[in-house]
Amino acid sequence: MTDTLYALVAFSPIVVAAILLVGLNWPAKKAMPVAFIMTVLIALFQWQMSAARVSASIAQGLIITAAVLWIVFGAILLLNTLKHTGAITVIRNGFTTISDDRRIQAIIIAWCFGSFIEGASGFGTPAAIAAPLLVAIGFPALAAVVVGMMIQSTPVSFGAVGTPIIVGVNKGLDSHAIGQTLTANGSDWATYLQAITTQVSFIHAVIGTLMPLLMAMMLTRFFGKNKSWKEGLAVAPFAIFAGLAFTVPYALTGWLLGPEFPSLLGGLVGIVLVTIAARKGFLVPKTQWDFDDESTWPTHWLGSLKMDLKIQDKPMSMAMAWTPYILLQARQLAPLMTAARESSKTLIGAGFVLVFTIPMVRIFINSGVNGAELVSMPVMTARFAADLVGDGFPALSATIGALGAFIAGSNTVSNMMFSQFQFEVAQTLGASTVVVIALQAVGAAAGNMIAIHNVVAASATVGLLGREGATLRKTILPTLYYLVAAGIIGIILVNILQFADVLTVA
Question: If you compute the radius of gyration of the chain from its CA atoms, what whole number of angstroms results?
């Protein structure tokens, strides 16, 4: 069998999953077991992985699943705690007093607050936190999940205090071999990693500045009464300001301080500046925009999460209402018994899907050790893609990163899978390894917007399980924007400006 056929076989479970989810509108709980079984069969009979290695990969995946479910449980528990204490009512009123415009609310909650949460926690937490909060203030569940998933882009490369770079890229490259070359050229590994960090932050800043505007346009086009892109475009001055309020400090932090703090500080600065601007009416459109009456919403927009937004007899202060979010960062949230029971029930549906999805990913990643003497499935598919485009590879680098994130649901894992491959291809083509690896990291961040188990996790928090395909059909649009823009930047930097590595790696 040729490498081309091997690549197509390796990729077939992902194609089948996409067809079932997006094309046939199957729920993930039915589509992902099919993809998992296909992956196991391919691993055993085509890649000739040992049964022991496949079993170990499944076990590894289940351990990771438990960690992911713990994050989801915390997000659901937080929302149920807020609901049962009445805190959600106070938070809702706090956001609506800033602005009644749903476009502004989405930008503040999803873009600013979500980016800050991503910088602190990562691993899908922002969407799982922002989506139910948006539902609580009156957004349709599907709209909340779509907007929540769009957070999984610009801030993700530096999420969880820089984990995708510090762990993903750092551990995904052959630091020993590359380090020797760097030393011979009078440099070192830390400088090289910082050069990649700087490129990642600047590429993201250029593309990400328009993400708040795209959020607003997605809301008005798919969830507005008039189905209008123009109504979203009307908030452009404020949305671009909100984008810059995050991306400018984000890029400067990546350049000057490294990978740990860009999303965290960018989100914090963004929250302050954008909230003040909204309160003062700075660049806010004169005409407010809202959803049509809830009675007109299609049933597929609605989830099972319901919020009683009546003011309690003894309302709490705003500071007390926000306390659970502060405690979330310290992992010290003490649950109410009722909230815990409700959260556990919601978790069961998400857990069933993830039990198949993440072990499938681990089999993919671990398939490099096999009796057929083949490279791993992800590398096989990436090589096939690279061979198709030749010198146009920089246009595809981000897409390969997104493919890894789509498979694994993680920027960090995608970087670990493909960073060395991207490095080798860049050297073969004589292109900047720094730029190409940066494009990998940027694309891997964008791929989180369509990562299946991230969609499942966010959907679970608003009671929208079983409708993941509807979300994916919408989040593919901002993902394509991100990848096309990254590809254009890659071609400009590598082929037109012929950007050279800050470090010469022979």
Answer: 22
Torsion angle of the four alpha carbons 102, 479, 155, 419, in this order, in degrees rounded to the nearest 10: 170
For each successive 10 residues of the chain (506 residues), what is the average pLDDT? Answer: 88 84 76 91 95 94 77 63 65 72 94 87 76 88 93 92 86 83 88 95 98 97 94 97 98 95 94 94 94 90 63 59 58 56 64 78 87 87 78 91 81 82 83 94 95 82 81 94 97 86 54
pLDDT of residue 84: 66
> Hunting for tokens 């984000």 — which residue is that?
250
List b or e across 259-282, with b for residues whose CB sees 16 or more CB atoms inside 10 angstroms. Answer: bbbbbbbbbbbbbebbbebbeeee
DSSP letter string, 382-403: HHHHHHHHGGGHHHHHHHHHHH
For residue 500, give the DSSP letter.
P
**Cα–Cα separations (whole angstroms), residue 453 to 27, 359, 445:** 12, 12, 14
Predicted local confidence at residue 505, as pLDDT: 44
Q: Any alpha helices (H) in 48-140, and if so which ranges?
A: 51-85, 87-98, 102-106, 114-120, 125-136
Largest CA distance in the chain: 72
Measured distance between the N- and C-terminal CA atoms of the chain, rounded to whole angstroms: 34
3-state SS, residue 163: helix
Q: Please, are residues 461 and 76 in contact by the beta-carbon 8 Å criterion?
A: yes
How many other CB atoms are there within 10 angstroms of residue 331's CB atom? 8
Confidence (pLDDT) at 297: 92
Q: What sign for the dihedral angle of Cα 278, 280, 283, 289? A: positive
Do the Cβ atoms of 120 and 363 come closer than 8 Å? Answer: no
- Residue 105: count other Cβ atoms within 10 Å of its Cβ: 24
Which pLDDT does position 250 carry in this prediction? 98
- Looking at residue 432, the DSSP 8-state letter turns out to be -
pTM given for the model: 0.78
**Residue 222: CA count within 13 A, CB half-sphere:** 23
DSSP string computed for 5-42: HHHHHHHHHHHHHHIIIIIS---HHHHHHHHHHHHHHH
